[in-house]
Structure formats: structure tokens, C-alpha cells
Amino acid sequence: MRKPAKLTAIAASFAAVLAVSLVPVSSMAEGAKETIAMGKKVAYDRKLGNCLACHMMDDGVSPGDLGPPLVAMKTRFPDPAKLRAQLEDPMAANANTMMPPFGKHNILTDDQLDAVIEYLYTL
Amino acid sequence: MKKTVVAIAILCVVGLSSTVVAKNAADTTPAQDIETYRSYFTKKFPGVPLQEFSNGVYAIDKVSRDSWEAIEEFPPYEPFIEEGEELWNTPFANGKGYADCFKDGPAQRKNYPHWDAKRKMVVTLPLAINECREANGEKPLKWKVGAIASLLAYMGYESRGQTTNVVIPEGDADALAAYNEGKSQYFSRRGQLNFACASCHMQSSGMHVRTDILSPGLGHTTGWPVYRSKWGNLGTLHRRFGGCNKQVRAKPFKAQSKEYRNLEYFLTHMSNGIEFNGPSARK
Predict the structure, then answer these.
(1) Do A98 and B203 touch (CB under 8 A)?
(2) Residues B1-283, CATH architecture
(3) Which residues of A touch B (CB under 8 A)?
(4) What is the pLDDT of residues B196-232, one digit of tens each?
(5) Chain A, nearest residue to B196 by Cα
(6) Is a pLDDT exceeding 60 seen at residue A18?
(7) Apex CA B15: angle with CA B27 and CA B3, to 5°?
(8) From CA B56, how far away is CA B216, in angstroms rounded?
(9) A29 pLDDT band (50/70/90 cuts)?
(10) ipTM of the complex
(11) Closest to A52 (Cβ–Cβ): which among B16, B199, B210?
């Protein structure tokens, strides 16, 4: 009676170790997908990113034309820090830009900015 | 010629960079500013005659213009003109009326806004209406909608065809300071979204925000009061100023505040030479 119990405990702990080692792997793929989905949601939301007000992008309907189309983002911004800076405070690179300072003026949170950047790199 | 080029260069810098504004607002004269502002739009929209700019976005976009012309066949502001005429003709409790304040009748658009040298302030038409009421023991009207908008519709209709001619009196430093304050207000970025009036209505005029076309700033003051489909109502210029400030997520100033009166002074001066055509209908 005692032996099987011990065995069960051992098996359970093995399973636990196995589970712990497996979880990060599968959730990383899941997590990236979720981040990209959240980024798209933030980008499209009229009260958050509202990118479509000015940019043609992805499957967005009735985009504006004040800014350039958001395509080939990896080619245009090989350095993620540059893309981040463009979202944080676009006037630093171009004093005449109309693009709002999404970071500097706290229009988006850090997490939202991260997610939008992940999403932008899929375009 | 050289002066004009310098003026254009300075206004461009002022227009496009908020930090330079406060320092540079006084660097060009009102007359130079008109020249710069007007030619910016006539070059940006070649083929649009100066007078057409009184029609806002409908001066530059054929599709919007077609539906606007259809709306103008049964103008939504018409009942307000009738209501305004009734208000104009209804005596105050003391037996007097608006005609006792505005001696030469309801066609007053050409006289406003103007600089009042004694009081050292810009006087707008809505302000003059309420001061008339108060001088006769009546309560002032609300600034943005309702009876005041109807009165303005009637007075505007009677003033149609008058030409904008806002004077910044030569040698009056206070008048010039008020004008320059309005100019700074126009070119300064504000709000969480960081837009100046000039960002949308000068720099990006004619471009699309989603499906909306940004109207050119030239002529922006001629058509008031405006029946806006979005409001489903007739509203005053300062109501729209407040709405624009809210849209860029800035705290709006109060209607008829010094800030908005000075802004109206500058902006109306920019449309000198263009005919008043209010009331009008807008999307």
C-alpha cells in the first residue's frame, strides 16, 4: 500500500518537472501570438493607437493618408530601437511631423507600445 | 520682394515648429501674414479662386461638394434664420431692442471682430450681443448654441456679401499683441495628440484623416454660425474652437475667453478680402 503511494508521488513529481520544462516552450509561441494580436487591437483602437487615422495598413478599412503606408517594417526599421523611438517621440527625428508622441505623452503604456511594435514587425 | 520671402520663411518656421512660435509671432506684420497665409493655400490648391475658400472643404473636394450642394437646396439652417429674426424684433423688458445697440441694423458681420482701443480687447459679435442685452437689463445668452446662434444666423444672413476686413490698428501695440497672441495660439502644438490648429488646417489641409478631408484654414471664419450635421444643430465659432481643442485632447478654453477672441481676431484677419457667407452647413 505504501509502495504504490510512493511510486505515484515520484511519478507525479516527474510529471511536474516535465510540465515545468515544457510550459515556457509552448507558451512562448502562444505568448508571441497573443502579443501580436494585442498590438493589432491597440493599433486599430480609435482611442488608443488609432494608426488608421493616418496610415494605410494591413486589413484596416478606410485609412487616412497623412502618414506613409505601414508596410515592409522590418526593412524600413531594421533597428527596433529606432521604431520604438519613432513611436515614443516622433518629433525628435522630425520636428515638423504630425505624428503624436505616443510614449512621451502617455497615449499608450509601455506594454501597449511593446505589443504594437511586435505587431508592426509582422507587416 | 525680399521682405515677402523672409516673411514666408519665418511663417513656415513658425507654422511648423511649436517651440519657435512664441519668439517669432511678432517677427512678421499682419499684412505680411495675410500674404503668406493666403498664398500658401492658393498655391496648394491651384485653380480654387480666393472667394471659394469661404466654402471650406467643399472648395477642394468634388464629391463632398456634390452632397453639400444637395443639402443647400433645403438649408438646415433656414429655420434658425427665421427664429433669429423674431428674436431681433422682440423688444427687451425695457422696451428697447437690439436695433438700439446696433444702429445700422442687423448686417453687422463686417464690423466684427474688432479691436476696442478703450477697453484694450477684441470684441466679437456674440460678445457685443450679450453686452447689449446686459446693458438693457437682460440676462446674457449662452455662448455656443441656442438663441445666440439663431440671432447670429439672422445677422449673418443679412450680412451675406459683406467682405472680411479686420483691422489691426497701426501703432496700437496692444492690438498687435492681441493679434500675435492669437497667431501663437494658432501655430502652437497642444494637447496629448500634440497638434496645432495649423498642423491639420494648414500643413495637412486637403489630406484624409480616415475618410474625412481636412479643410483649408483660409476662409475658416466666414461661414458662421454653422449647422453641423455632426452636431445636428447650429453652433458658434467658439463652440468649434473648443471642439477642435478637445479632439486633440487639450483642455479647451471657454467660449469668448481672451484666448479664443484673440484667435478669432488673427484667423478672421487671415481671411480679409473673402466674403462673409454665413450661416452655412457643414458635415
Answers:
(1) yes
(2) Orthogonal Bundle (1.10)
(3) 52-54, 62-66, 91, 95-96, 98, 100-101, 105-107
(4) 999 999 999 999 999 999 999 999 999 999 999 999 9
(5) A98
(6) no
(7) 40
(8) 6
(9) confident
(10) 0.85
(11) B210
The one catalytic residue among B13, B16, B34, B244: B244
- How many A/B residue pairs have CB atoms within 8 Å? 41
Per the prediction, chain B carries an average pLDDT of 93
Under an 8 A CB cutoff, do B194 and A91 touch?
yes
The one-letter amino acid at B154: Y
Q: Is A42 exposed, middle or buried (0-12, 13-18, 19+ CB in 10 A)?
A: buried
- Closest Cα in chain B to A46: B210
Interface test with A, best of B209, B211, B213, B251 (most A CBs within 10 A): B209
Report the C-alpha gap between B214 and B71 in whole angstroms. 20
Residue ranges per structural domain of chain B: 1-283
Q: A48, A113 in Cβ contact below 8 A?
A: no
Pick A62's closest partner by Cβ from B16, B17, B210: B210
Q: Which residue shows C-alpha cell 500658401?
A: B40
Which cell numbers in the block locate residue A71? 508596410
Phi, psi of B72 (to 5 degrees): -65, -15
Output the nine-digit C-alpha cell for B25.
Answer: 509671432
Domains in chain A, CATH or no CATH each: 30-120 (1.10.760.10)
Q: Which pLDDT tens digit goes with each residue over A38-79?
A: 999 999 999 999 999 999 999 999 999 999 999 999 999 999
